Structure formats: C-alpha cells, structure tokens
Amino acid sequence: MTADIRRIIHVDMDAFYASVEQRDDPTLRGKPVAVGGQPGSRGVVAASSYEARAFGVRSAMPMARALRLCPNLVIVRPDFQRYRAASQRILEIFRSCTPLVEPLSLDEAYLDVTVNRWGEPLATSVAKRLKQRILEETRLTASAGVAPNKFLAKIASGWQKPDGLTVISPGRVEAFLQQLPVDALWGVGPVTAGKLRKIGIERLVEVRAADPDLLRRAVGSLADVLQRLALGDDPRPVVPNRPAKSSSSENTYNEDLLALDAIRAEIDRMARGCAAWLARKGLLARTVTIKVRYAGFTTVTRSHTAAMPTRDANAIAARALSLLDRTEAGRRPVRLLGAGVHGLAEGDADIGAPGVLGFDG
After folding, report:
1. How far is residue 192's CA from residue 171's CA, in Å, rounded to a whole number?
2. What torsion, rounded to 10 degrees, do the Cα atoms 361, 341, 255, 329 define?
3. Is omega for the bond preceding 162 within 30 degrees of 0, making it cis?
4. Which residues pair with residue 284 across a beta bridge?
C-alpha cells in the first residue's frame, strides 16, 4: 500500500450480548439463547445467539414470537454492566494498537491502523492479532473487515461471520464491489432497495451509471452519497473521542414492526441506553428526541425540551414514550426507530424534575 492509502479495520463482536451470557454460564453453550424480556411482560429480543438465529430469532422481535419459532429458546435477562465491562476491555485492546479508535456501540468499532503502536505494516496482521487477543483476554470471538475505507471495512466484517476475517485490498476493491447487491450500500434498507429495483437497479455497481435525476426522484438526497459509495469512495476519517454534543441510538429492522407493544419496548430500551450513556459520561440532558421511519420511508422526529437537565432513566424513557404517542407507530408499519438526548450539560447529580412517571424496562 502507498502512504496515502488508509488501512481501516471494522471489528464487530459476534452475537455479543448472547455470547457474554454463554461465556459466563456454561449451561447455555450450544443452546439457542435470547437476551431480553419475558414474553408475558411484552418482552422483546435484544440479542440472539447463532443457535437461536438458525430458527429465525432476531433482535427487536417480540419474545412471544421468538418462542413460537424456537420452543426450546432459553431467555436471559440482559446484564448491561457485564456487557459494558467486556466492551471496555475490548476497547483497551484496540487502544493498545492505535489511538484512532471510533466506537460505534458496545460491540463494534472502527480502527485506523495505517500507523500503529504495534509497528505492524500489514493491516491483516493487525486484525489477526486483535482477534486473537480478544479471544484470549475475553473468551469472545470477533469478526473483522480490513479495507481502505470505513464503508468497505464494515461490509467486510459481516462477510464471514462468526469469527470471520475478510480483507479487501485496494487491488480487490472493484472485484468486491462487482459482486454486491444494491442493498449492501450504506443507508439502503429493504424499502430503499425496493425503490431502486423499481427503476432497474439490482446491483451496487449499477448505481454508478444511473441517471442522476431518476435516482434523486427515487431516493432523494441520498442519491449523491450512493453514487459515491458505489465507486468505493468513502473519505470519512476514523474520529476518536468526539466532543459529546448528543447521544442517540437507532435501529433499522429486517422486518417491519407492527405491534405497538414491541415498538414501545424498543423506544424504552433505547431511551434507557441514552440515560446510561449520560451517567457514564457524567452528563445531563435537557432534550429528548425520537425518530420513527415508516415502511413507506416517511421519517418523523419528535422532541421535548425541559427547563432542567436530567439523566434519570425513568424520566427520559417516559418522555420518549410520550413522544411516541405523537406518531402513527402502531397504526403504520415501522422500519426504523431511534431515541436520543441533546442539550447536554455537565453535572455530578441528577437535577431533573422529580415525579415523572417511568415505565418498567
């Protein structure tokens, strides 16, 4: 590689929550495991082991449906303290290699290893060493993708899961892109893929030659980004330690969510995750937001700003659920949900308004 070509690694832990549970409880190993709430309490699957996935059990699925698909499913309540502890150890391994680490969540991160503390000239060697150290020090497996940019590295990390390693060298980029379907592009879920197929685009590389006006009518402002990514061009740097202006979580679901109970459970989980992030950072937030994208790709956002900042999980979750009531969720199929906190302030104690009713997580 020449000096101006970056060496990017995307590491994605394999079935992270479920794998931590199977690691810590030997009786769960080899069994279909779902981490989440009980079906009788409108529980939703937060994560599933690969044994459960073989039966079609997926995250965000109502637990009652998961049990119908897999009657022998073992349900485990989530323990985020243990998941965060494992994630922190993995981040320490990453940062022993390079300061350029950009965590995306508890179980995945980008690393720029173009220059690294281990003195390894080959990113493939770095990725192998990272995977081995993660296994030795946490007894968990990770999949890694190595590529010249973030877009390609993320695709590569999911190519051979679990415990996979896929390398896309600069000389292999074009051959790799040629074999991908259009929904491999960042931002293209089932609905957008359907719109692209309606105008005759089935493969990623066909986006390149698409008429710009036709493409823009189909996918709006996403058109320019997709044409650039279809060329394998992604200039985004790996950005560590971004100053916190907000925190949010969102998820695009493989199958549209129809049941309001499942939608509410997802928003509640995401909002509480934001509250936990505030607590870890020693921050408070004034504004709570939610995002809902319907099956027709219409996206709405709702927000509420309070006079006093808070990090109380019950208060934040209650506000997020109240915002959800101002949408058509439960009446229209939902393909994406998100929740976030904004208007951050430093604080050692929660000074949020008391007395806001919360919901059980």
Report:
1. 30
2. 80
3. yes
4. 345
CA distance 137 to 201: 45
Q: Which tokens go with 237?
A: 């740097």
In angstroms, the CA 90 to CA 23 distance is 15
**Which residue has 């823009």 as its token pair?**
216
Write out the chain's pLDDT in tens, 361 residues.
Answer: 444 789 999 999 999 999 999 999 999 999 999 998 888 766 788 899 999 999 999 988 889 999 999 999 999 998 988 998 999 999 999 999 999 999 988 899 999 999 999 999 999 999 999 999 999 999 999 999 999 999 999 999 999 999 999 999 999 999 999 999 998 888 788 888 889 999 999 999 999 989 889 999 988 888 888 999 999 999 999 999 766 677 888 888 878 899 999 999 999 999 999 999 898 888 899 999 999 999 877 889 999 998 889 999 999 999 999 999 999 999 999 989 999 999 888 765 443 333 332 222 2
Active-site annotation holds for 92: no
How far apart CA 138 and CA 219 sit, in angstroms, is 42
Please provide residue 19's backbone torsions phi and psi, each rounded to the nearest 5 degrees.
Answer: -70, -35
Catalytic residue of the set 92, 108, 174, 255: 108
Using alpha carbons, list the distances in angstroms from residue 46 to 169, 195, 279, 283: 34, 29, 21, 26
Q: Contact, 335 vs 294, CB < 8 A?
A: yes
* Domains, the chain, ordered by start: 1-166 (3.30.70.270), 180-230 (1.10.150.20), 247-346 (3.30.1490.100)
